[in-house]
Amino acid sequence: LCNQLGTFDGSGSWETFRVKFEALADYCKWNEADRHIQLVSALSGPAAEIILLCHEVPTYAYLLDKLQLRYGSEHRYESYRHQLRTRRRKSNESLQALCEDVEKLAARAFPGTDADERETIVTLPAFLNALTDNDLSTEVWRKRPKTLCDALSTALWAEEMLQALQRRYGD
């Protein structure tokens, strides 16, 4: 298990990789030297080039700082918040995919917020606002969902119902 980390090349989410890395490091009881060598060996592609930019072998703390600065999302909070405010369901996009994307954007836009609080204040309203079909949106709003899971379940049910009515009675 302690060799199951994978690599980070800068194309994925640094935050996700770091959480997985720290969880594995804690589980494997790595000390700082172990964490350092594991992190260095997990870097590839452009992310590994950070090592080459140093005049000396970088410390673990230095590597974390540089990776966070280059690949972290702190400087992108406003961008994620804008994307969340303007997110709308795409043509042929499943409700599950929309829900997942809204959750990711909310987590990136408000990373320090308690997950339950973020869901109530940010994620649930963003999901409801992203519904582009007026009839579907009305049905979901009418049910007054309290959680994102409730909203998704209601939206899936309402979409099925509306599609069945359309098949039966036409437009």
Explain this structure.
The structure is a single chain. The chain has nine helices and no strands. The chain is an all-alpha fold. Helix 6 crosses helix 7 and helix 8 (134-143) crosses helix 9. The chain is elongated and about 70 Å long. The N and C termini lie far apart (55 Å). The model has no long low-confidence stretch (mean pLDDT 91).
Task: Describe the structure concisely.
This protein has helices at 14-27, 32-42, 45-52, 60-71, 77-86, 95-109, 115-130, 134-143, 148-169. By secondary structure, the protein is mainly alpha-helical.
Key descriptive features of the protein:
single chain, elongated, 171 residues, mainly alpha
Instruction: Quote the average pLDDT.
Output: 91
- Strand residue content: under 5%
Structural class: mainly alpha
Helix content: 55-70%
Structural Rg: 21 Å
The global form is elongated
Major sheet details: none
Helix and strand sequence? HHHHHHHHH
DSSP E strands, number: 0
Low-pLDDT residue spans: none
C-alpha termini separation: 55 Å
Q: How many DSSP helices?
A: 9
